[in-house]
Amino acid sequence: TPAGAQAPSRAVSTGTSQKPYTTPKTPWGDPDISGTWSSDDLRNVPVQRPAEYGNRAELTDAEYAKRLAAAGEARDRELNRVGAFRNDVGTRTFRQTSLVVEPADGKLPVTAEAQKEVERRQQQRSNPPSSWTDRSLYDRCITRGVFGSVLPVIYGNGNFIFQSPGVVSITYEMVHDTRIIPLDGRPHISNGIRQYMGDARGHFEGDTLVVETTNFMGDTTGVGGNGGGPPTSDVLHIVERFTRVAPDVLNYEVSITDPKTFTKPWKMRMPIYRHR
Predict the structure, then answer these.
(1) Rounded percentage of the chain residues whose pLDDT exceeds 70
(2) Does the pLDDT of residue 6 top 90, yes or no?
(3) How far apart are CA 132 and CA 31, in angstroms?
(4) What are phi and psi of 166, to 5 degrees?
(5) Contacts 24+ apart (CB under 8 A), 126-134
(6) Dihedral over alpha carbons 105, 111, 112, 115 (to 10 degrees)
(7) Is the CB of residue 174 less than 8 Å from the CB of residue 156?
(8) What is the chain's percent helix, strand, coil content, to nearest 5?
(9) What's the CA gap between 160 and 158, in Å, rounded?
C-alpha cells in the first residue's frame, strides 16, 4: 500500500532500502524529477547527530520503534488540535540518526570563529533590535538561503521543481525564492557578482541531477532551518544531487565546502517526498 494511503494520523514506518526503479523521462529525454516535493517527513530527524548514537547512521529497532510511536502521538495531537489532518506534520518516519552523514560522527565541523559568531547572533536576536540588521534575512522575509530552504521546519517545506529543455528551476514554498539552473554547460558568472542563493549550474549524471553552486554573498544565511545556524561565507561551494528513486521519493544530497566556516567538507542527505 502506498505510504500516502495509510491512516493519516499515524506514522508510516519507512526503512532505508529502495526497490529498483526506472526514472521516467521528460519528452526531450532528461530524467523527470519535476513536481512538488516536501521535507515535512524529516522534521523529527535532527540535522546533527546526538552524541548517544556515536557513529551510527541509523537507529536500532528499539530506538526506531520509540521514534515511530512518538511521531504517531505528535500527529494525533495535531489532528485533535485542528480537527483535520495537515500534511505538514509529516506522514513517514525514518531511521536516520541525523541529516548530516559525513563526517562519520554526524556533527557539523564548525570552526571556533564560526561558533562564536553563532553565539553572538543568538544573543543579539534574543533582545529587542536596535536596527533591521539585528534580525536575520528570514525574519525580514528576504531569503533563507539554499540550505534553509530545504531543511524541514514547522511549515512551508515545499520544493517545486520545474523542468524545460536546457534548464531546471526550483521554487521554495517559504519566502518563494526561485533558483534558475542552466544545463547547457555555460560558465559561472563573474566572481565579482554575488547572490544570496549563489550562481547554479547543472548537468545530469545518469538519472541524477548534479547542481554546482558558487558566487554566494558572505555572512548572510547559515546551514540551519530557515537559514539559521553557522553562517556561510563568500567562499562557500556546494554540490547538490537530486535522484528520483521511486514515483514519490526524491533523494537529496548536498556536499558543502567552506573553509571560512568549517574545518573540512561535509555532507547532508535526506529523502524528500512528492505531494500528489
Answers:
(1) 89
(2) no
(3) 43
(4) 85, 5
(5) none
(6) -80
(7) yes
(8) 20, 30, 50
(9) 6
Contact of 228 with 138, CB cutoff 8 Å? yes
CB-CB contact of 48 with 98 (8 Å): yes
| 3-state secondary structure (DSSP) of residue 183 | coil
> Cα–Cα distance between 120 and 122 in angstroms, integer?
5
pLDDT digit string, tens, across residues 60-103: 999 999 999 998 888 888 777 765 555 556 678 999 999 999 99
- Give me the numbers of helices (H) and strands (E) for the chain, helices first please: 3, 12
Lowest mean pLDDT among 96-105, 126-135, 143-152: 126-135
Peptide bond into 103 cis (omega under 30): yes
- Give SS3 for 206: coil
Distances (CA, A) of 43 to 110, 132, 156, 167: 22, 29, 12, 30
Cell of 96: 536516520
Cell digits for 45? 530527524
- Outline where 31-181 has alpha helix (H): 61-82, 112-125, 145-150
Kindly report, residue by residue over 12-55, the tens digit of the pLDDT.
445 445 578 999 999 999 999 999 999 999 988 999 999 999 99
